Amino acid sequence: MKKLITIALCSLTLLTPRSAAAKVKIVCTIGDLCDIAANVGGGLVSTRILGKGYQDPHFVDPKPSFALAMRGADLLMVVGLELEVGWLPRLITGSRNSKIVKGAGGYLDCSTLVKLREVPRTKISRSMGDLHPGGNPHYWMDPRNGVRMAFGIYKRLSKLDPANRATYKRNYKRFAIQIIRLARRLKKQLNPYRGSYLIPYHQSMIYFIKWAGLKRLGTIERLPGVKPSAAHLARLHRIIGATRGRKIIVSETYYPSTAAKRVASRFKLPYVRMAHMVGGLPAATSYLKVLEHNTARVTAALAKAIQ
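and the corresponding structure tokens:
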């Protein structure tokens, strides 16, 4: 009996360090979520990104390797609002991981953590384009939502790994302060251009536009997810021509640039490609860098725009 007890104690001694060193495995649908999670989790978490920053997050190729990565995940973080509805559900099913199904503790819909914009107040249909019934899903482009997401991630990690709650809380506070300080600095850069107009290709820029104190003057797309028609561009041309103030054309890296460049050329407006997500442009290597890089590109373009 004494020998068995000694063996058991030795086994526990060997297992304890491995358990303490085990990381919370996080899988995210976009890089911004993983970057925020990595800042909150620090060395206590590992992250895996499914969609790349240069890909349209609505249409990600559901590779078998993604399901395999999700099989061992402790936490799945999604944008939500049906952004990933075309490709993520089959991966969740294929992962056979009950911890990350919707409603489980390992499933975090980050849209529940933030303040949303463009939530439809009436019934929508496919004739209105690719509208999202829960609201505009591109909320991470507002740094205030970045702070809210960091807080929600800290709370969820604390539930999954309560022994390290104090560390997650400390990391969250440090990262939140970094976002707030950067946001204040960027707003100072943007202040001279308050009220200026951005004309984006898609409606994904609204969170950035509102936070930056700018205005949206139509979109290049006829409807969300619908390519521009000649009639729509003609209407947009009339609106641009009749509107006074600084104006620039912007688009994400994964949308076609031809129509946007034509509009910019017609009215001699600056055209800017923006990093919609981490990895969308070479300099957009982190969530903070996305905010910083986009602000720098927009302010430089607005400085050149004719009033």
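(Above: one complete record from the training split.) Residues 165-190 form the longest helix (26 residues).
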